[in-house]
Amino acid sequence: MKAWHIRSPIHGHFESALFLNQSARAPDVSSLAPGQILIKVLSAAINPIDYKAFDSGWLGRNGIVAGASPGLDFCGRVLATHPLMASSLTSGNPKEGNLVFGSLAKAQKFGSLGEFMIVPQTECTALPEGVQPDDAAALGTAAGSALEAFPSHLFKPGGAVFINGGSGGVGTYAIQIAKLLGASRVVTACSTANVELCKSLGASEVLDYKSVDVIPELRRRGQVFDLVIDNVGTPGLWAHCDEYVKPGGGFVQVAATPSIGALLPILRYKLQSFLPGPKHRGFYFVMSKGGHERFEQLGGWLAEGKLKSVIGETFEFEDVPKAYEKLKKGHARGKIVIHVAKE
């Protein structure tokens, strides 16, 4: 099979470490463990987490396996299943020939940037009728992160939310999910080019960070938000959140680089909660939470037209490094999807 692999030894930047193996060993039925399925990948979505660990130095690279195929998010057709499959899934077991979509909980040897991959059946669900593979593949990590960013103890129907970075992969889903969960007001920030996009997704108000200094503007408004979701990692946004988040509200950080420099502030914020003295609003770091039931919910919203995937650009399989270059530049509109194989 064709598959993008990470070179050994592991060094340099992520894009330079990728190479297209035209004759990679494909997984087969004998490779499956109980509860796993073999999939032919049709579409895959890429995410910052794919390269952030690699580019962050020794800490992030510690768990990377040379020769593995990157990629977590996918949509594809089931080629085979292990005879021992879990029977607890609400929509039954995936069967040979079914189209499924989902996201791996962690990087594995056979990722979604290969023509064939192995997936735990608990990390995918059936593709709803009428939903396109690209749209379903885009959900995975980004929509899973967006849904996780609304903890029920912080956000209730009728609440107001500020979403920093509304036009990216997580942000485009977060705006829509906020409305689906009953937000009374959704304010977001993005660049001039994406203001109308964010409004079309349901944002009540959009701050153009090219013409408005966002943090002073939020501070000027006072304690009006129940929840702040930061998809960017903007310096100072957390430091001043007490001024624009209501008592009892919270701050959710989605974007973070797994480096010492990024982890220390998070640890410091957590330590503050145990020490005497003034306390900031609750700080929560979230990662994508997928799973069969979560993907059923997201896929159902897609099928019903309540949620849509904003796909900013698609790339052919041979152009994966170019796709990551585009993603790493930042300011990508929605999701980037790779066409891995044709039916």
From TrEMBL:
Protein name: NAD(P)-binding protein
Superkingdom in the source lineage: Eukaryota
Species of origin: Lojkania enalia
One of the record's GO cellular component terms: mitochondrion
Pfam family, one: ADH_N
InterPro entries documented for this protein: ADH-like_N (IPR013154), ER (IPR020843), GroES-like_sf (IPR011032), NAD(P)-bd_dom_sf (IPR036291), YIM1/Zinc_Alcohol_DH_Fams (IPR050700)
GO MF annotation list: oxidoreductase activity
Enoyl reductase (ER) domain span: 12-338
PANTHER family reported in the protein's UniProt record: ALCOHOL DEHYDROGENASE RELATED, RETICULON-4-INTERACTING PROTEIN 1, MITOCHONDRIAL
